[in-house]
Amino acid sequence: ALKQVLPALSPAQSAAPNLTILHLRLGRSHDLSRAVYPCRLLEVDDIDQANMLARVWRPDAIVLDADLESMALLSELSQYPALATLPIVTLTAAITQAANQIAGLSVFPCLALPSGEAAENPLLQVLQIATGRVAMPHLLLADLLPDAAAQPIERLNATAQYLQAAGFHSIVSRTWTDTIEQLASRSIDLLLLWLPAQANVPSEQIATLMQLQPPPMLLLHDPIAVPAACETVMRLTNAAIVTLPAAAPMSELVAQVRQAIEPRLTLIP
């Protein structure tokens, strides 16, 4: 079945991006008409129809609504240039992982759909980033180890790769000196700090950080590191701070990042 949904653009939402979204439903079927309003929504149930529709309507992005049994069709999607060249927004972790394994696809996960009358619309935010309607946010990831002990941290690297795949330009800083230099020379939308177990918060570096008027901060902590390190950072800073256990699902991390940087997103004319 093929259906075109064209919601009217109300005056209150006239500033929202007017995108054309191709909703490809492969075994799943969320009702996205409210979630992507005021965008034009084209709904289709198989890849052949999606390819035909993409060649006619030239959509700005695909929202891939698929189940586990349909993941094999992703490689078929990549054979159609009209589809493979579009940014693809995925709605589950499993589909996101499968899509990221196919060369050439540009994948943007959105693992939390808007609910009820909530003001925040994560799907529309992801679509804006995926289609280039807002500047890609810049994240700086660092740890609280002393400079002399700083070494590449696999967890931080893996987090950066996941955030990069989710549409965030992610930079990993190896030392506190580098962190300060990056904040001074770049436009950073969020500073993500990992607090390793028994981390000692470098108060002198934090004081230097405060002089730079830092962006919002997200603290990732091990359970045993929560009390001292987190409380010290929050006491020494005046930045907006959110804390999150390092063992939290990546989907929750992405949701927290989006919420923290949403006020800083800049529309591109």
Characterize the structure shown:
The chain is of the alpha/beta class. The protein is elongated. Strand 5 (87-90), helix 4 and strand 6 form a beta-alpha-beta unit. The chain has a six-stranded mixed beta sheet with strand order 1-3-2-4-5-6, with helices on both faces. A five-stranded parallel beta sheet has the order 8-7-9-10-11, with helices on both faces. Mean pLDDT is 78; it is low at 5-16. It is built from ten helices and eleven strands. The two termini are 36 Å apart. The protein has helices spanning 47-57, 73-77, 81-84, 93-100, 122-130, 154-165, 176-185, 203-211, 226-236, 250-261, and strands at 2-5, 20-26, 40-44, 61-66, 87-90, 106-109, 138-143, 169-172, 190-195, 217-221, 241-245. It folds into two domains: 2-130, Response regulator (Rossmann fold); 138-264, Response regulator (Rossmann fold).
Query: What is the tally of beta strands?
Result: 11
Proportion of helical residues: 25-40%
**Strand coverage percent:** 15-25%
CATH topology of the largest domain: Rossmann fold
**Element string (H = helix, E = strand):** EEEHEHHEHEHEHEHEHEHEH
Major sheet size, sense and barrel closure: 6 strands, mixed
Structural class: alpha/beta
